Structures are given as C-alpha cells and as structure tokens.
Amino acid sequence: MNKFAGLELLASAVLVMDPNGCIVYANPAAENLLERPFKLLHKLQLKDLFLNGDELLSGFEQAIAQQFADRRQDMILERTGRDPLHVHSIVTALDHAETPVLIELRENVQQLKLDREERMQDQNKENKELIRNLAHEIKNPLGGIRGAAQLLELELPERDAKELREYTQVIIKEADRLQVLVDRLLAPNRLPQVIADVNIHEVCERVRSLIMAEFPKGLVIKRDYDLSIPEFRGDQQQLIQAVLNIAHNAAQALRMRMADGDAEIIFKTRVVRQITLAKIRYRLALDLHIIDNGPGIPPNIRDRIFYPLVSGRDGGSGLGLTLAQAFITQHAGVIDCESRPGCTDFRILIPLP
C-alpha cells in the first residue's frame, strides 16, 4: 500500500492492524521475521500467528481503547513448528479509524545471545561429566587388554610367533592409541593451570608460526590487532592450545583453497565494553576472532561442533573444539561460532582486568 511505503525500508518488523485485530499491512522485515509472505499474513489475527499472543492481543485492545500512546515490552512469542521469537514489542495507537494500531517487533539479539551462552555452558558441563565418565570406563579395561596381549605374545610358540605376533601387536598398538585418546579427553581436568600474565598477541603469534610451519604454501595469515589490549591473568599454554586447535581446523578446511593459492586466516583482536559472560557483567573483555575463508561448517554438525568426538572431516578426532571450549571456560570466557560458505568466524571472549 502506498500510504505505508515509508515502512518498507525499516529493519524492524511492522504490522498494521485494522479495528478487528486483522493484519492489513506487513513490511518486508515482518515477512522475514515471521517467515511468511504478506499474502499469507493478510487478514490473519495475532492469535493465528502466536500460540501465546494473549499479551500482545491485550496491548492491541488497550491501544484500540486509547489507554496509551505506545506500550513497550520484551516477550517470547511461541509458534507452531518454528523456534520461538525473542522480541521487543512496541504497540502504538494510531489516530486513524481504518488502521488504529501499529505493532513493531524487534528481535532481541542480546537475549538470544544470553540464551545461547547459557546453553553452551550447560553443554560444556555435560561434556565434562560425559568425558570424565567415559574416559574412566575405557581406561580401566584398556590396561588389562594391553597387558593380556603382551603376556599372550610371550607365550606364543616359536614356530608361529612371527605370524601371530602381528595380531598381538595390532591389539597393543590400538590399546596405545586409545590410551592417548583417553589422556587427551582427561587433559583439561587433570592438568593444573599455570597462571601468569598473558599477552594475547604473543599467543596469536605463537599459533601463527606453528600453522605457517605446517602449511607453508598457499595460505596467508593476516593480523588485525588492537595493540592497546592489556595483559590479563591466565594460562598461556592452555590459550595457545585453544587458539591452535581452532586455527588448525581452519587450515585443514582450507586445503582446496591452498591449492589455488587464496587460502586466508585472520586473527583479529578487539576490546568490548560492558558485556555479560556466563551471567556475570564485565567492564572489559577481550574479543578475539579467528576467521577463515573456507567452505564453512557442514550444516548437519553446526550445532554440535563443541560436542566430543564430533568432526567435520575424515580422520578428525572430534576433540579439538571440545578442548578449546574447556580451556576458554577455565578462563571465565565463552567461545562461539558463526559459519557460512566463504566465512567461518570463531569468537573468543575473555574478561579483562
């Protein structure tokens, strides 16, 4: 409608209602937020859009009764077959008989972020408990299997020893491989932290040198540092390992681009202010990004990349990101990821003094 043309370019979702509570206009942002074109939204009521739209409907009725000029509140709107919407709603009474109410919905990004961090915290706790129990369950019989294979090897008859020893060696080597895996699973909980002053750029430079030594051709590692970032107390070796695990995964994902000579990883550091991490408010925090221009994380594992033993490539152990998350959590920080083809961005936030 021409009279609503000014609403077309708004980033927030706008619904214009008639006196009966039916939608007579929805801007493109509303179509995107509600995941429906206007032809499906037209003439729908709020109760048709949301399972718990009573509060929004109450605001509409009060606006019709001219009880306020506008009403603002945060709410979670439930939908059938879709994720709930965390929004900040503004219900405005208009001085127009045919379209008396305008409803604006702004997605509450901060609330989504907090909810996501809370889920990741819970996931990290569950991962630690799972890993600890799994590792101990594997470790106890593993020693017995290896010992039995060694004793069996000593008892083999000499005429068949060479041929049969191949089988006992398979058992021993696989037991050793599993032992290394178990030790890696238990490492974050077993090793004490060595706390000292840490310069995050020294950490990044150490990781950069290690990655460039392993992948000397076709890969460029760019640095975009904020040199004003202060030192903070932490375990430098843990942080090196966390950043290395992420950067190494990025380099592995860039092998095809390395062949073309345009593979790129970016280390970017910034300071963010007044940020909430794990429900605690901090005045300052380190904001470290590790960005690559690879193919992106496969959609089928994108929500599970920090789970143990989940890997996006053949031969991967699926422990690198789990360990990185554990080390960052021990520094009261959080780690998150946004990925699409051509850009994967791992973000690490750690409180600063």
From TrEMBL:
Coiled-coil ranges (or none): 102-140
- Histidine kinase domain ranges (all copies): 133-353
Q: What class of enzyme is it?
A: transferase
- The answer to whether keyword tRNA processing applies is no
Which domain of life does the UniProt lineage start with? Answer: Bacteria
Q: Which InterPro entries match?
A: HATPase_C_sf, HATPase_dom, His_kinase_dom, HisK_dim/P_dom, HisK_dim/P_sf, PAS, PAS-like_dom_sf, PAS_fold
| Keywords from the named record | ATP-binding, Coiled coil, Hydrolase, Kinase, Nitrogen fixation, Nucleotide-binding, Phosphoprotein, Transferase, Two-component regulatory system
Q: Which chemical reaction does it catalyze?
A: ATP + protein L-histidine = ADP + protein N-phospho-L-histidine
EC number of the protein: 2.7.13.3
Give the protein's function: Member of the two-component regulatory system NtrB/NtrC, which controls expression of the nitrogen-regulated (ntr) genes in response to nitrogen limitation. Under conditions of nitrogen limitation, NtrB autophosphorylates and transfers the phosphoryl group to NtrC. In the presence of nitrogen, acts as a phosphatase that dephosphorylates and inactivates NtrC.
Protein known as: Sensory histidine kinase/phosphatase NtrB
Which lineage is the organism of this entry classified under, starting from the top rank?
Bacteria, Pseudomonadati, Pseudomonadota, Betaproteobacteria, Burkholderiales
